[in-house]
From TrEMBL:
<keyword id="KW-0169">Cobalamin biosynthesis</keyword>
<dbReference type="InterPro" id="IPR050714">
    <property type="entry name" value="Cobalamin_biosynth_MTase"/>
</dbReference>
<dbReference type="GO" id="GO:0032259">
    <property type="term" value="P:methylation"/>
</dbReference>
<dbReference type="GO" id="GO:0009236">
    <property type="term" value="P:cobalamin biosynthetic process"/>
</dbReference>
<dbReference type="GO" id="GO:0008276">
    <property type="term" value="F:protein methyltransferase activity"/>
</dbReference>
<keyword id="KW-0808">Transferase</keyword>
<dbReference type="InterPro" id="IPR025714">
    <property type="entry name" value="Methyltranfer_dom"/>
</dbReference>
<protein>
    <submittedName>
        <fullName>Cobalt-precorrin 7 C15-methyltransferase</fullName>
    </submittedName>
</protein>
<keyword id="KW-0489">Methyltransferase</keyword>
<keyword id="KW-0949">S-adenosyl-L-methionine</keyword>
<dbReference type="InterPro" id="IPR029063">
    <property type="entry name" value="SAM-dependent_MTases_sf"/>
</dbReference>
<comment type="pathway">
    <text>Cofactor biosynthesis; adenosylcobalamin biosynthesis.</text>
</comment>
<dbReference type="InterPro" id="IPR014008">
    <property type="entry name" value="Cbl_synth_MTase_CbiT"/>
</dbReference>
<feature type="domain" description="Methyltransferase">
    <location>
        <begin position="36"/>
        <end position="139"/>
    </location>
</feature>
<dbReference type="Pfam" id="PF13847">
    <property type="entry name" value="Methyltransf_31"/>
</dbReference>
C-alpha cells in the first residue's frame, strides 16, 4: 500500500528545488486528491508532488509542468524510480503548456517564475467547479500576488492561507540543535 509522505532522501534531487516532505504532505491534504483525479503540478521541480499526487490518484492523471531541462530530467527519473505511469511530463514555462490540458480537479503551484498572475488567469477556467488550487509561496510577494488575485476574484474563489515552518533536530557533536527550514505560506483556494 502506498502512503503519503515519501522521505525526501528517496527522491533523486541534485540541485533542483524540491518541496520538503512536511510541506508536501500538507499541500496534498489541502488538495484533497481523489483516486480518479486530474491534477496539475505547476513548477514541478523534481516531481515530488507529482509522484505523491499520482499515488493518491492511481486511476487519474497528473500533469507535471516544469520549464527547466534539469527538472524535467529529474521528474522523469523519479517517475521511473517510483513506477507511477500516470504522470505526464510537460516541459513548458507556465502558463504555456496549460491550454490543451483536460479540466483539473486539483492544481498545485510550487513555482511560478514571476508569472503567477498569468498562471492564475490560465488555470482558473481549467479548474473544475469545487476544485482546489493549492499554492506554496516562499516569498511574501508571491503570497500577496495570490491573495490579491483571490480577492479580485471572490466571485470565483474562497481561500485560506496558513504559514508553516518546520524545524528539525540536527546532531552537532553530542548535542541536538534545532535547525529551521524557511517558512512557507500554503494558500488553499476552493472554486465555487
Amino acid at each position: 500500500m502506498d502512503f503519503l509522505g515519501i522521505a525526501d532522501e528517496e527522491f533523486i534531487r541534485q540541485d533542483v528545488p524540491m518541496t520538503k516532505q512536511e510541506i508536501r504532505i500538507l499541500s496534498l491534504v489541502k488538495a484533497q486528491i481523489a483516486p480518479d483525479a486530474v491534477v496539475y503540478d505547476i513548477g514541478a521541480g523534481t516531481g515530488s508532488i507529482s509522484i505523491e499526487a499520482a499515488r493518491l490518484a492511481p486511476q487519474g492523471e497528473v500533469f507535471a509542468i516544469e520549464r527547466e531541462t534539469a527538472g524535467i530530467n529529474l521528474i522523469r527519473a523519479n517517475v521511473a524510480n517510483f513506477a507511477v505511469p500516470n504522470v505526464r511530463v510537460i516541459q513548458a514555462e507556465a502558463p504555456d503548456g496549460i491550454a490543451n490540458l483536460p479540466e483539473a480537479d486539483a492544481i498545485l503551484i510550487g513555482g511560478s517564475g514571476s508569472r503567477l498572475p498569468e498562471i492564475l488567469e490560465a488555470v482558473t477556467p481549467k479548474l473544475k467547479d469545487k476544485g482546489r488550487l493549492v499554492l506554496n509561496c516562499i516569498t511574501v510577494q508571491t503570497l500577496m500576488q495570490c491573495i490579491e488575485y483571490m480577492r479580485t476574484h471572490s466571485d470565483t474563489y474562497i481561500y485560506e492561507a496558513i504559514q508553516v515552518q518546520v524545524t528539525r533536530l540536527q546532531q552537532v557533536g553530542t548535542y541536538d540543535m534545532a535547525k529551521a527550514n524557511n517558512p512557507i505560506y500554503i494558500v488553499t483556494c476552493w472554486k465555487k
